[in-house]
Every structure is written in structure tokens, then in C-alpha cells.
Request: fold
Amino acid sequence: MLKHGILNPALLELLGRFRHTNTLVIADRGFPSWPSVPTIDLSLVDNIPTVEQVLLALLPACSIGAAFRAKEFKSHNSRTAVLAAEKLLRTHGIKLTYEKHLTFKKRVPSAIGLIRTADTTPYANVILESA
Reply:
């Protein structure tokens, strides 16, 4: 029996397929779904869990080389929230690129999976690229 780390079996299976240059989406509760992208829904109630909480759980388990986020994240959230999100990635040596939300969404169909959270933060979505 697992005693620490990622406990969700579906998430463990997805992470086992997350290899060099693959991408993985961590999405907020309102993000659309794509029938072709396997989705793991971790949402429970508003903001449990958040995108940042899922990131905190995944980062020690994965080798991430890059992250992508919509530019709108910066304009729709407080400076404090933006800096905290950037710091989380930076402390793990992950390069963050901001791009238009529509450009961001065009990356989704090529992702190996999507993790849906209950995050209510506007544009909280992030795409991780495996190193």
C-alpha cells in the first residue's frame, strides 16, 4: 500500500506515461474538455484542490522542463497571486512562458492528459512539458 506521494491510481497511471517532451494540462474547474484527451477529475468542492495544490504534489514526482500559462492569468489575478505561482515554478527550475489564452488552448489536444481541479482562480490553467 502506498503511504506517501501521489495516491490516486488514475493519476499515477497518467504520470507513468508522462515522458520526455510530453505535455500535461492542469486545469481549473471551468476549463473545457476535449474528448480526445484523457481527463482525470480531482475536483471536490470549490478550490479543493487548486491548480497550485496539484502542482505542489506533482513537482517532486516529475521532471518538468517548461510550463505554459495564459497571459490573462496575469491581468485577472492579484500581483501577489501571480508572483507566488511564478515562484513555485521558478524554485523547481521550470521556465514559464505566458501566451494568449487561445494559443494556450491550441496546445491542449496534443497533451497526454488533463487533470481537472476545482480551482476558481481565473486562467489558473497550466500546461507542463516533461524534461
Q: What stands out?
A: Helices lie at 9-16, 51-58, 72-76, 79-90, 101-107.
